[in-house]
Design a protein that fits this description.
Length: 331
């Protein structure tokens, strides 16, 4: 019985030891797994942060390039005419031709970009009045002036109302009568006159003022607007008409360039870190060599001094030994 109980207690002790070993191994495995997971999470976070930073820098560089390289695509401004009516004129309403000055400066900056071709047009909103119908064709003169008042460019264009017969006007009036009565529509025509088809500003004498003069003192207008449209070619054409594709190509190129630059910088830093232990070892070895050489030099100096002082020590000893002998002899 005692033997069986002893065997049972021994087997129970072995089982408890095995359980403790298994628990320790399991704890070590869980600790190692948690450490690896934490390391992976930190690495993923660092990589994500670096990639996000590089991507943001690439987008910022592309946006800066786009807004600095691309000029304004369109520009429009209302045109306000002035004229004199204080003369005695029976054949016309105005004493002078309608004249307007339009500034090409916005916020102290030129609207037109140097080297860029533009199409400049004038939009006239004219009523279908008997005066305009009887007017027929009229001329529009446009002149661009620089800051010093010099003439940069000029053009003269003709225009007129589109012809509509009496029957067509009557039918249109009857058809759109409710809109005319409510004010939703008006009996007018919008005429667009091309002033410059391919205008390029001079960088040495840029245009800052455009003077528009209608060479008729019988014309009637509701309103007028000046429009400037840019003719893009080359890279500007691609950037303007294919903005998404251009943005993808530009941001991707910047991202690749910045990534290569970052990787090269990181590799250089790693090489420096790896070369530092070797430098420390060489410095320590050099220091050890210098200390060893210094000790050897000190030993050599001490040995030389001992050799020099050797005869003096011997003579002094001999003298000290001879003194007792002399005293003994005298006694």
């Amino acid at each position: 019985m005692d033997r069986e109980s002893h065997l049972r207690s021994k087997s129970d002790g072995d089982a408890s030891v095995l359980n403790e070993q298994l628990l320790l191994k399991l704890q070590d495995a869980i600790t190692m797994a948690m450490a690896r997971i934490r390391q992976r999470v930190m690495q993923s976070f660092v990589v994500f942060s670096v990639v996000s930073l590089v991507l943001w820098l690439a987008a910022f560089l592309y946006g800066s390039f786009y807004y600095s390289y691309m000029p304004r695509a369109t520009f429009s401004t209302p045109v306000h005419y002035h004229y004199r009516t204080d003369c005695d004129s029976h054949g016309s309403l105005f004493c002078t031709y309608p004249l307007a000055n339009i500034s090409l400066m916005r916020n102290k900056k030129h609207v037109l970009t140097f080297g860029q071709a533009y199409r400049i047009s004038l939009q006239l909103e004219m009523p279908e009045s008997p005066a305009n119908q009887e007017l027929g064709m009229f001329m529009i003169k446009t002149t661009c002036f620089s800051q010093d008042g010099g003439k940069v460019s000029s053009s003269v264009r003709s225009s007129m109302l589109r012809y509509r017969s009496d029957l067509l006007r009557s039918l249109g009036t009857l058809l759109f009568l409710p809109a005319f009565l409510t004010g939703a529509a008006e009996q007018k025509q919008v005429i667009e006159v091309e002033l410059f088809s391919d205008y390029t500003d001079d960088p040495y004498s840029p245009s800052i003022v455009v003077v528009i003069e209608i060479l008729s003192n019988k014309v009637q207008l509701y309103s007028s607007h000046l429009y400037v449209h840019a003719h893009f070619t080359g890279i500007r054409y691609l950037l303007f008409y294919f903005p998404v594709s251009s943005a993808l190509v530009g941001v991707s190129s910047n991202f690749i360039f910045l990534s290569v630059l970052f990787i090269l910088s990181y590799m250089r830093l790693l090489l420096r870190v790896e070369s530092r232990p070797d430098q420390v070892r060489t410095m320590l070895s050099e220091r050890e060599k210098s200390t060893y050489n210094h000790q050897e030099d000190e030993k050599d100096i001490a040995a030389g001094a001992a050799e020099l002082l050797g005869p003096l020590q011997i003579t002094s000893r001999n003298l000290s030994q001879e003194k007792p002998d002399m005293t003994a002899a005298t006694e």
